[in-house]
């Protein structure tokens, strides 16, 4: 298993057997994002690898963010 954390609560995991290769980021979130509540912001992250990586968002305490009120 490979776990990468960019320090901004984004985590990427990959694992499996066979012809594995680590994840390659196609799109990384910025290290810092400042936005107003009026306009909002979009944070994107995309990667590929074998097996395909799973991308999830993590809160500062380390728990995985499943759903956040007011976020889409």
UniProtKB/TrEMBL annotation:
Source taxon at top rank: Eukaryota
SUPFAM superfamilies in the cross-refs: Immunoglobulin
InterPro entries cross-referenced by the UniProt entry: Ig-like_dom_sf, Ig-like_fold
Renumbered residue ranges of the record's region Disordered: 53-72
Record-given protein name: Ig-like domain-containing protein
């Amino acid at each position: 298993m490979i776990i990468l954390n960019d320090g901004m609560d984004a985590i990427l995991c990959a694992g499996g057997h066979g012809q594995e290769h680590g994840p390659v980021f196609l799109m990384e979130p910025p290290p810092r994002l400042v936005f107003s509540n009026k306009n909002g912001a979009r944070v994107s992250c995309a990667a590929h690898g074998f097996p395909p990586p799973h991308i999830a968002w993590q809160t500062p305490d380390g728990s995985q963010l499943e759903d956040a009120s007011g976020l889409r």
